[in-house]
Request: fold
Amino acid sequence: MAEELPTIPRVAGPMSFASVSAVYQGPHLASIGGFAAWRVAFLSAAGDLRLAKYYTNPNYEDAVLTDLISPAKTHLLTSRAECAEPEVPSGLSARKWEKHMQRRQARVQERVALALTKEAAHLKSRALRTARLYLLSALAPPLRSKASALSSPSAIWSWLDTTFRGAPIHATGAGLFRQLQCAMQIKHMRGEDAMEFFERFEIAANEYIVPYLTAAGSASDATQSYADVVGDRFRVALLANALPPHLRDQFEQWQAGFAHWDYTRIKQHVVSQMEAAHHAARAASPPQELVHDGLPVKKEPSCSFCQSTRHSEATCVQPTKASAHATDQVPPRKRRRQVEEPARIKTEGRERAISIADSSDAHVKRR
Reply:
């Protein structure tokens, strides 16, 4: 029995997958003939909802889930952590009170960090559930009834890949032309991870190349090595079509000195260039900003004393400086009295003790 596809309640906030229904609005996957085109369209739609990587990576961890927790929720967790820690006892000296307060603030920060981690885990489970329902909604009823037995979005995705990519394809002229169109529609998106791009590209390219070489002739007509050379040329040509001009223009340089176009070697060069560009972009980004949905978002200060984002209140030196500054503001006469008063009391006590001792000696002599 096919699993019912409920609608996720609309929730205001920056998490795009939480503000839409769990129903895919594109065409349903029903047969192998449309798998390549459906796959590209579905991953594109899932990427807009921050769900695509939950299908292709079974161990995916969204690094920004903690940053997407609402300010109201963060304030609530902080308040609970404050209430859970006992107050610093009164009657302590200023130095001891400050040390106790710093330790308490550190414990509060630890409680807040733990609570945020648990909240992020809750958001991840919610995202996994939404991703699974979203994928099921993109399948035709016969496929959906089979896929609903799988518990995770990555498991369903792996099953679909195995089922459709391993199935035989009838290499008709119309079918090959349709697969070629799908392969030529693959384009590298700016900022896309190199491995994710090549996963998309190679699936679509092989959907065309493998049936084409199979239909071209039997083993008696062409050797396997010749088929490999032709396949590599096809892949390099389709890859050039998928890449931006600044990468495509380097193909001739990478190929210099080699007799045949080697797809594996070209791929290594492209991956190296993409990773270098990615690292350069990260190094050039402002350290005080995060990026969410393509927009820069300033980090919230973690210290209320100096508004810094690099340390917490427990390790801030501003309270100590403020205390010293407050001491400097005491009037000179009062400060001198505060310094001289203990010495005067100590001197008077010593003189009092000597006087008592002299009186005792005089009394003993008279007796």
